[in-house]
Amino acid sequence: MKPFVVSFKGREIDFKGRRIVRRYRDIMGIFQAVDPTLESENPVVYEVFEAPIPEAEGELMFLVTILYPGDVKGEYFMTKGHYHVVEGTAEVYLGLQGKGLILCQTKEGDFEAVEMTPSSVVYIPPYWAHRTVNVSDEPLVFFAVYPAHAGHDYETIEREGFKKRVFKTETGYVLR
């Protein structure tokens, strides 16, 4: 592989890698309630644009995620969330646009909610699951970097969920 450059402006992204689109019906099971209107409309909840990096030890994967604003009966739009298959691997997020929370938890039950805003850098240590939640009325856009061989364990989160969820209030949000 040779060095390369990718560029993006706002939501004009062309990483020449994989684009993952998660629509409401793809991930509706992660929300506490079901919204028949959203099920019918099936909006895009988030998109991930990955760089063309091999998933090999020694490589660093990087990507941009756009998590759109919205909610399911008061629960904010969020990503699926995952642990890394290679548990001893960390991840770094750089907020580019919008406002959100990174929900983090360990299998032992530790939990943290970390705010992400433009220009903030969030470090997610090894052994912590993480999920991103958009708590604003604009797209939450962030850049992420992690060891390319880390892998994603979505199944544990599908089975066990996160300890807390994020809901809209008149003044912002609340964790329940």
List keywords for this structure.
3 helices; Jelly Rolls; three-stranded antiparallel beta sheet; six-stranded antiparallel beta sheet; 176 residues
How would you describe this structure to a colleague?
The chain has 176 residues and is mostly beta strands. The protein has one domain (14-175): Jelly Rolls (Sandwich). 9% of the residues lie in helices and 41% in strands. The chain has 3 helices and 15 strands. The strands form 5 sheets. The protein has a 6-stranded antiparallel beta sheet with strand order 3-4-5-13-8-11. Strands 10-9-12 form a 3-stranded antiparallel beta sheet, with no helix packed on it. A two-stranded antiparallel ribbon has the order 1-2.
Structure summary:
By secondary structure, the chain is mostly beta strands. The protein is built from 3 helices and 15 strands.
First-residue to last-residue Cα separation = 46 Å
- Unreliable stretches (pLDDT < 50, length at least 5) are none
Physical arrangement of strands within the biggest beta sheet: 3-4-5-13-8-11
- Radius of gyration, in angstroms, nearest whole number: 16 Å
The level-1 CATH class:
Mainly Beta
- What's the architecture, going by CATH? Sandwich
Order of helices and strands: EEEHHEEEEEEEEEEHEE
Specify the oligomeric state.
single chain
- Can you summarize the main beta sheet? 6 strands, antiparallel
Number of domains: 1
- How many strand elements? 15
Fraction of helical residues: under 10%
Average of per-residue pLDDT values: 95
Strand portion = 35-45%
Output the CATH topology: Jelly Rolls
Estimated structural class: mainly beta
